[in-house]
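Exam revision sheet. Question 4 asks you to relate a sequence to its structure. Input first:
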Amino acid sequence: MLIIENLSQPEWNTLSSETMEEGVVLSINKPHGWTSADVVRKIKFTLQRHLKIKKIKVGHAGTLDPLATGVLLICIGKATKEVEKLQAQEKEYIASIRLGATTPSYDLEKEIDQTCPFTHITKEAVEEALQAMIGAQEQIPPQFSAKLVGGKRAYERARSGVEITLTPSKIEIYDVELLKFDLPDIVVRIRCSKGTYIRAFARDLGESLQSGAHLTDLVRSQNGNFRVENSMNPETFTVF
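Answer key, structure tokens:
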């Protein structure tokens, strides 16, 4: 299996359909506003056009929300068999969180639905709350998530106005660091396990601070050994 982060144009031109079919993993820096499926379609279309083959398997390991950016691993050919293994790797995120307000989606997809006091929150209180969130735990996923409920995605039901009960998921927060404190905004670095919803992390943090919170920006800075600064941009992805 070939692992590719950034390659020069001449190097791309040496890749063959046989190489792709044998298995390739691309580290992509997903742009803001793109779905993970958008990236898969872009890569698949480009490879099909360049390699002149009708069918090629392309998938992704670990979904990123449209409003998030950062490392998205794209698996090609036989590498699609490695999706679960790649998804299971430790993740690192840089999360921008606004205290004192909530949204139904816990990010900027939906408008603010409630405001809360936040001037009582100190840097020390935030650091203490973050440390308390480290460890194995059960996390309730957001209503606006891709979790399957009765054969439908949770976000489909939520967007139809149907309130559902989601089963908590077992996750683990390995480490948290407060990078910036400028009320009502904070920036946090989070290392966590597969299946962790950072939007739900923001929700829980707001509640622990006797306030509310939602994400204003999210970057997956690392997935396993893949880092965002070494990942390629699909908007300029080309192999011809």
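Marking note for examiners. Residues 36-51 form the longest helix (16 residues).
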